[in-house]
C-alpha cells in the first residue's frame, strides 16, 4: 500500500492524491523521485493517510468533499451577490436618468406654457389699445389728458416704462422744446420733424407723438421697457 502524506489531517482530494503519487514516483516509469531525505524532512510534521484508522479515512475524505462544496457554494453566493449589486446599481442609474429626464420635460413644458400665456396676454394687451386716429383733435391738452391717451395706446405691461421715459424727457409736455438741440415733443424727437411719419399734426397732437414714440421704441429697443433699460444706463435713448 502506498503511503500518502496528508499534513495535519488536511483533506486529501483525488487531485492531491495523484499529485503526491507523482512526486514520490508511484506511477510506473515516472521521473525518479526527489531525494528521500528531503522528502522525509518536508513530511516530518505530517500525518499519513495510511496511518489514519480505516474507519476515519472515509470521514476525512468526506470532510474534504464537504469543504470543497462549501467553498464552491460560498464562491457562488459571492458571485450572485456581486451580480445582484451590479444589477441594482444599473437599475438605480437608469431610474435616476428617467427621473432627471421627466423633471427636465416638466420644466420645459412649464416654460412653454408660461411663454404662451405671456404671448397671449401681450396679444390681448395690443388688441385693446387704441390707435392715434381714434382720438378727436383738440386745441390743447392737459397733462392728465395726455397721460390718459397714452394709457389707452400703450400696452399695459409697457406703460410704466413708457411713462418713465416721457416724464424724464418732457414731463408730459407735448409742446416741450429744447432750445439748444431743437428736440421736440413728449419724446423729445430730434429733430421733431421725425414724427411726421406718424402724422402731419405731430406738433399739436399728443396722440400722434405717442404713436411715433411707440414705433421708435419698439423698432430700436424691442419695447418701451427695452428703451427704458437703455435710458437708465445712458441717460438717453
What is the structure about, briefly put?
Helix content is 60%, strand content 3%. With 237 residues, the chain is an all-alpha fold.
Can you tell me about this structure?
The chain is rod-shaped and about 135 Å long. It has 237 residues and is mainly α. The chain is built from seven helices and two strands, in the order βααβααααα.
Q: Which descriptor suits the 3D outline?
A: rod-shaped
- Helical coverage, percent range: 55-70%
> H/E series, N to C?
EHHEHHHHH
- N- to C-terminal separation? 114 Å
The count of β-strands is 2
Figure out the total of helices: 7
Mean pLDDT: 79
Q: Spans with pLDDT under 50 lasting ≥5 residues? A: 1-34
Radius of gyration: 50 Å
Structural class estimated from helices and strands: mainly alpha
Give me the side-by-side strand order of the main sheet: 1-2
Largest sheet: 2 strands, antiparallel
Strand composition percent: under 5%
Record the SSE blueprint.
Blueprint (H helix, E strand, L loop, with lengths): L4 E3 L6 H10 L12 H7 L3 E3 L5 H75 L14 H11 L5 H12 L35 H16 L2 H11 L3
Helix pairs in contact: 4-6, 5-7, 6-7
Looking at this protein, list some descriptive labels.
single chain; 7 helices; signal; disordered N terminus; Transglycosylase SLT domain-containing protein; 237 residues; rod-shaped; two-stranded antiparallel sheet; Transglycosylase_SLT_dom_1; Lysozyme-like_dom_sf; mainly alpha
